[in-house]
Amino acid sequence: MALTQAKRFTLEEYHRLGEIGFFHEDDRIELIRGEIIQMSAKGTRHETCLRKLLRELPILLAERATLQCQSPIVLPYNSEPEPDFTVVQNRSDDYLSAHPIPADILLVIEIADSSLDYDKNVKTSLYAEAGIPDYWIFNLLDNWLEVCSEPSELSRGKFDYLNKRLVLPNQSIALPCFPDLFLDLTKVFPPKQNS
């Protein structure tokens, strides 16, 4: 009996599929370690949190960094995720020549409800391996912010963040790239819905 193996795509192949119209404009996909992954549907709390962050983060960052929302970043080993938010260094061409790479990235933010396991397990390892210095997960199921810093290889091929902490929705947190800028989480977390 022959073993079957899934096709893994390079970044170039993935981009070529997009160019030839293989994907629909509405497809919510990303490339993770060479696999084309269908992204989870977004609930109303996810979208509300996204809108609130979209209101607050640009005010905080002003001209100090570039904020991108649900846009690609290029990571090693054929990955091109589209985090909910990425704070990247300002660049004169506004990334016209290429999507941001790990050296450009200051902070990655994911908003997680139905995608929580994926964001905590797959994405955490992916971002840590790429050396992304800070990763935040707005955990809408437990209603707190999970803050990850200090990416490290814990054992051969196993990557994670050494420093993890929780910040409650009634607190404020300094942006790791700009410790003088504080995000008030009471302005970000949507109210809990009754089950």
Word description of this protein:
- This protein has 195 residues and is α+β, with helices and mostly antiparallel strands.
- The protein has 3 helices and 10 strands.
- The strands form 3 sheets. It has a 6-stranded mixed beta sheet with strand order 3-4-5-6-7-8, sandwiched between helices. It has a two-stranded antiparallel ribbon with strand order 1-2. Strands 9-10 form a two-stranded antiparallel ribbon.
- The protein starts with 10 loop residues before the first helix and ends in an 11-residue tail after the last strand.
Note the beta-strand portion: 25-35%
Succession of helices and strands: HEEHEEEHEEEEE
The description of the largest β-sheet is: 6 strands, mixed
Shape by Cα distribution: globular
Distance between the termini: 49 Å
Structural class: alpha+beta
- Write down the Rg: 17 Å
Q: Approximately how much helix is present in the residues?
A: 10-25%
Tally of DSSP helical segments: 3
Indicate the low-confidence ranges by residue numbers: none
What's the short version?
This protein has helices at residues 11-19, 44-61, 116-129; strands spanning 29-32, 35-38, 66-69, 85-88, 105-112, 134-139, 144-155, 158-167, 172-175, 178-184. It is of the alpha+beta class.
Offer a few descriptive terms.
single chain; 3 helices; alpha+beta
Sequence-ordered SSE layout with sheet pairings:
Layout: H1 11-19, E1 29-32, E2 35-38, H2 44-61, E3 66-69, E4 85-88, E5 105-112, H3 116-129, E6 134-139, E7 144-155, E8 158-167, E9 172-175, E10 178-184
